[in-house]
Every structure is written in C-alpha cells, then in structure tokens.
Specification:
about 200 residues, 8 strands, alpha/beta, two-stranded antiparallel ribbon, about 45% helix, six-stranded mixed β-sheet
C-alpha cells in the first residue's frame, strides 16, 4: 500500500514537471516566431521615391502597340523587369503569371526586357507569354533606373509608385502588395518603422 502511494506521488511530480516543460517550449516557440521577420523585396536606394508620382513614359510592346507607364488608368500596374539570361527571372515567371491571372480584374502585369530579340522570343515561347504585354527596349528600365534583375515596380491606378524592389522569390513579389496595403515602400521599411517606435513605459 505504501509503495502504491509513493508511486502515485512520483507520477504526479513527473506530470507537473512535464507540464512546466511543455509551457516553456511553447513560450520559446512564440519568441522564435516573433523574431523571424518576413522577407520582403529589397528596395535599392535609387530612383523614384515611394508614394511619389511614377515617371511617365510610353514604350512599344513587342507587337508595336504603345504601352503607357505612370499614367492614371483603370488598373494598377506591376512592372516586372527581366532578362532571358537571368535564371532567377525565369524561376519567378510562373509566380508572376499566377499573379497576373489571379488579379487580372485590378492589375495589369507588364514584362519588360532588353536585348537580343531571338532570346526574347525563345523566352516568350518557353513560358507561354504570347498573350502578355511584353516590352523589349531600354527606355522603361532607364526611366525607372533599374540596375539589377529581377526587379518589380507596383504603380497604383492614380499613377503613384507604391512599392518596388529586387525580387528573388514569390514571397518578395507578395511583399510588394503587403507593403502597399500597409502604406510602406517595403516590408523592411515597415519593420524598421516598427522597431523605431519607443518602447511603452512600464508602470
């Protein structure tokens, strides 16, 4: 009888110890989750400022049809700057196509490149971009001061540049829309702004 009582006491002690250990693990997971910042598009410190009117420029697409950038329009614009020789650009094309398809009612996606026409055509054929707006020429990239690829620029319906950045993943592309919703140029700007807030005083 005495052995049974002792074993029950030991089991309860073990159970309470496990409960405290589990609570500690949950707390550590919460801290780790809070410390992992979302990755956003890397905004290079050049070109037009966020929330300023986008540069107005008109360029012909690969079929000779004029495409206007930076003007007020019925839809917002996502400019995706790419190159046929850029592997990351190619890896992102399915994601860009998905965004174009899913947001077609409010967003026009324009592919912008420069260089050899045969390579451009091969890229268009490989990724089935025949029905997409595809501009081949340096004028848009020069106007928006694009230095690295792949790069994306988001312009709203009023012609205001809302977000931009170097994009290496679908997460980076999505961050442009998240940044626009939050009123920041990039997720990094949002995080820096949040970190710069003074800590609340303890009472």
């Amino acid at each position: 009888m005495q052995a049974l009582i002792i074993s029950n006491i030991l089991l309860w002690v073990l159970l309470i110890g496990l409960a405290f250990t589990l609570m500690g693990l949950v707390r550590q997971i919460g801290i780790l989750h809070a410390r992992i910042a979302p990755a956003g598009a890397l905004m290079l410190d050049k070109g037009v400022e966020i929330n300023e009117p986008a540069p107005k420029v008109t360029a012909a697409d690969r079929n000779g049809k004029p495409v206007a950038f930076g003007y007020a329009a019925d839809k917002a614009q996502l400019l995706f700057f790419l190159s046929p020789t850029c592997p990351i650009c190619k890896s992102l094309l399915p994601a860009v196509k998905a965004i174009a398809r899913d947001q077609s009612e409010r967003l026009d996606v324009v592919y912008i490149s420069d260089g050899d026409q045969d390579k451009q055509q091969a890229l268009i054929s490989e990724f089935k971009l025949q029905d997409s707006t595809y501009v081949v020429g340096p004028e848009v990239g020069m106007t928006y001061q694009i230095g690295k690829l792949p790069y994306a620029v988001l312009i709203d319906q009023q012609g205001v540049l809302r977000a931009k950045g170097l994009v290496n993943s679908r997460e980076h592309l999505d961050s442009l829309f998240e940044a626009q919703l939050m009123g920041f140029g990039s997720l990094q700007d949002f995080l820096y702004h949040d970190a710069a807030k003074p800590a609340p005083h303890a009472h």
